[in-house]
Amino acid sequence: MKLLVGMSGGVDSSVAAALLKEEGHEVTGVTMKVWEGGAPQGGGRTHEKHSCYGPGELHDIQDAKLVAELLGIPFSVIDLSEAYRREVLEYFREEYLAGRTPNPCIRCNYRVKFGFLLEKAGMAGIHFDMFATGHYAKRCFDEKTGRYGLEKALDRKKDQSYFLSYLTQEQLGRTLFPLGGLLKEEVRSHARRLGLSVTEKAESQDFLEESCRSLIFEGRVSEGPIVSEEGTRLGTHRGIVYYTVGQRKGLGISSREPLYVIGIDAPRNTLVVGPEERLFSRGLITGSPRWIAFESPPRSLRARVRIRLAHREAEAEITAMTGGRLKVLFEKAQKGITPGQVAVFYDGDRVLGGAIIEKREER
Length: 363
Fold this sequence. Notes:
Elements: E1 2-6, H1 11-22, E2 26-33, H2 57-71, E3 75-79, H3 81-97, H4 104-123, E4 130-132, E5 137-142, E6 147-152, H5 169-173, E7 175-176, H6 184-194, H7 210-216, E8 224-228, E9 233-237, E10 260-265, E11 270-274, E12 280-286, E13 290-291, E14 300-306, E15 314-320, E16 326-335, E17 342-347, E18 350-361
Parallel strand pairs: 1-2, 1-4, 2-3, 4-7, 8-11
Antiparallel strand pairs: 5-6, 8-9, 10-11, 12-16, 12-18, 13-18, 14-15, 14-17, 15-16, 17-18
């Protein structure tokens, strides 16, 4: 089979490409170029942690190229900087300026990495039957429904099903996740066996290098008030784009009890703070969902819901509302429900779908 493997320059995607070649597939490596700036300061190579978007990308591309050469597979770099800026960076910027906290990685996956990358690869004359990545997740197929499914990886600590929850049936149908049944240490063991130069390379720390944030929001960030729920001014923030619901550190205010960001009022450029108990809520409202498990979902269902990557899934009742939105009511109040984040719905290991959180409900 002809396989196109997305190679990020990290150990996971490198091992994915190597294992698929060992299985006898005809493998071609491909890397996205999304950074539009120059080389890192100093120009030297480093395996320190960096982010998906930033000057460190130039080193990642070189790492991916070296692995491809070692494996003896064709390798291409595809420039997706314009699409990435339009689909991810602008989305990231506008959401933060609107007082929401987006998840750019989910959007990048379904719009860019599993979308434009494959389109551009085909346009560049790269012929392939399936696309493979180094994500920790499992793809399955339900004979009864005729639908492709997405499940959690064997390695729960590395599971990335949350980030893949917006993939379409077409995207899942042409994708392989060869690391879904492996533990991270097994992956590193394969890398050592193969003599890959990226064996001990640190993983990306975030989607955006902090030094790039000022470039994205240049000229559109201003200081504003930090107020209590009653409206009393308690301090000054440096720009709402640097804060998220649930944040405690970096507020620069003192009080007798710890205060957290409980709301972001973008039209007034204001942060609202309060005690920790004000972060808890029983429910939330989402926008229109993206379903994986259903073509025609039920009007209501029970599921375990994760409201952000680091959140522990919680039991909830999900009910369809008018206009395509969903209401999610948790059995127990959850902390830090944040507009802009994605709520992902699980049935055991199986991903049912996901939806962007619009607001939290007090009851």
